[in-house]
Amino acid sequence: MAERALCAPPLALLLALGVSPALAASPPLPDATGPGSLPSVRAAAEAAATAERGGATEGSAAPPIRLGQFGFPVTGTPAAPAEPARAWTIRPSLSVQGVATDNLRQSANGKSGDVFTTIEPGVAISAETARLQGVLNYAPSARFHAENGDEDRLDHNFNGQALASLVPGRVYLDLRGASSVQSVTGGFAPESSAVAEERDRLQTTSFQVSPYLVQRFGDTATAQIGYAFQSVDQSGGDGALALQPGLQRGDVAQSFTAHQGYAVLRTGPDFGRLAMEGRLEATSYIGDGVLDGAYRRIGTVEARYAILRGVALLVEGGYEQQRFAGTPGIDISEPVWAVGTRLDFSESSRMTLRYGRRDGFNALSVDASLAVGGRTRVSARYGERLSSSALDAADLLSTTSLDQFGNPIDLATGLPVARPFSGSFLGTQNSLARVRSASAAIVQTWPRDIFALTVTREERSPVSVAQGGSSFAQRGTSGSFTWSHALTPATDAIAFLQYGRSSSELGGDGTTLSASLTFVHQLRERTALTLQLASSRRETAGSNETATQNYILIGLRQTF
User: Fold this and answer.
1) Cα-flanking dihedrals φ and ψ of residue 223, to 5°?
2) Tens of pLDDT along 169-219?
3) What are phi and psi of 8, to 5 degrees?
4) Residues near 272 by Cβ (< 8 Å), separated by ≥ 6?
């Protein structure tokens, strides 16, 4: 089937069926944000029809997950695959977009229109050999303005993961990395990493390298011992001081490295209905602000017992120590526990509910992914954690996998990540916060249509502030609807509507409304033409200011 190169904001949402899509053009104005993909209506319909038959089509099956159901800290232990007919796939591409807008900086006063060109060379590399499995999607984006040369810039965008078998069945090396751009001040839709101004731009780059050893004891148990090195670097965002005077430099960017040692022992089939896992993890951070001298140490034992077919009870106990700098400093040293249940409705439908204590507070967690019939999928997630913007970037590397096109996949649900590697709905801070996040989505696929409805909610409450800095509480809720329709065998249309509300102690309340209509026409097998009309509106209640931005985008993408 010919590749389809589509372009629309809600990239992660239309991927919620677990379909491996064709390579897509980068998201539109105000910023080209790099790797991402969107399935065509026909590709998703074929996948749904195949799922009903209980099979899989090449390139359209749900992406493989490299972690087991219990989950090792970094990755599971995949069996060495048979050598495929094509072990390496390299897809270079070139995308050129022309954009005209009436309000480049989304300013409420003094609108400034402009025309700019975005040039995005890209390469998607996938490997599937006996010794190496991985995918890398890299697409740097260069932007050139006709009138506002100070807004010219180069953004680096990539997602990549690789698993190398150094000694088959025994020693592995796991490599992960991601880089993307987000807004410092926030106010943009969660499914879009749009950044309106150069001074509001924050580049976040994260890497993780983890060698580990696996030892199997027949069907009795499996042990894993490893080390992980993490690095997160955030740069830019200095100009955000002028956008929000309450921000200080320490509240914007944060960089750190971390060293983690871990050991896991998991029972095997010999234990029948009982499954147990013991885990030890110790992480030391080398960074500034709240991460100066910070560490996390935790040891837990989890037991899962299947009382009925598809119904299991979960019990967890252990002890944790955590330390973070700042005011007030965080020093946690106490037991952790959790109780819950896991429901397996089918191979593709499951739900896990937990309630317990970790990070110094009691909280509920929910992970659910349900197939309703052959055409509808419902997913939901809720959780609470101690984190910062930079820590979020590192956590995403550990809790996601990638499909063959570089799209991040949540390891708990098997679904694409509704929030990309960089979120721009809430403002960026380097303070330590208690984060409450929830999301729910429903996706329905028909032969010529895809419908997607999603709702996200996030709250951030500061618990420790870097010396000399400041912090503020913030929260936001967003809902969106997407309809993708196949007009002809070569042309798709995508309609998108999103509304969000956010509130912060610093900036007050605000609303975001965005809508777009996109047409994608396949000129040839590897060439696609994109036309997009879009409008967005941002309103701040405290200042009674409303900023409206309209634009038109024309793009051409060639895959080689």
Assistant:
1) -115, 145
2) 899 999 999 888 877 777 665 444 444 566 777 888 999 999 999 999 999
3) -160, 155
4) none
How, if at all, do strands 330-346 and 349-358 pair?
antiparallel
Question: Tokens for 361?
Answer: 């507070």
The average confidence (pLDDT) of the chain is 78
pLDDT value at residue 112: 83
Structure tokens at 261: 């040692």
Q: What is the pLDDT of residues 341-390, one digit of tens each?
A: 999 998 889 999 999 999 999 999 999 989 998 899 998 999 999 998 88
Q: Where on the phi/psi map is residue 490: left (φ > 0), alpha (ψ -120 to 50), or beta?
A: alpha
Could you tell me which of 25, 79, 30, 2 has the C-alpha nearest to residue 551? 30
Distance from C-alpha of 454 to C-alpha of 450, rounded to nearest angstrom? 13
132-146 mean pLDDT: 91
How far does CA 361 lie from the centroid of its chain? 25
What pLDDT, in 10s, does the model give residues 276-324? 999 999 999 999 889 999 999 999 999 999 999 899 999 999 999 999 9
d(CA 299, CA 281): 6
Q: Provide DSSP, 391-413.
A: HHHHHHHHHEEE-TTS-EEETTT
Amino acid at residue number 17: L
pLDDT, tens digit (0-9, with 9 covering 90-100), for 411-449: 665 555 644 444 557 777 788 999 999 989 899 999 999
Element (H, E) at 389: helix 389-399
Q: Is 251 helix (H, G, I), strand (E, B) or coil?
A: helix
Coil vs helix vs strand at 67: coil
Q: Which string of DSSP letters, residue by residue, matches 489-526?
A: TTEEEEEEEEEEEEEETTTEEEEEEEEEEEEEEEEETT
Residues paired with 517 in a beta bridge: 495, 533
| Cα–Cα dist 185/173, whole Å | 37
Q: Which two tokens stand for residue 252?
A: 């914007």
| Dist CA 407 CA 37 (whole Å) | 7
**Is 54 in a helix, a strand, or coil?**
coil
For residues 422 and 428, is the Cβ–Cβ distance under 8 A?
no
Q: Where are the alpha helices (DSSP H) in 284-360?
A: none
pTM: 0.79
Residue 184's region, left for phi above 0, alpha for psi from -120 to 50, else beta, is alpha
Give the C-alpha distances (Å, rounded to integers) separating 216 from 266, 267, 356, 464. 10, 10, 31, 42
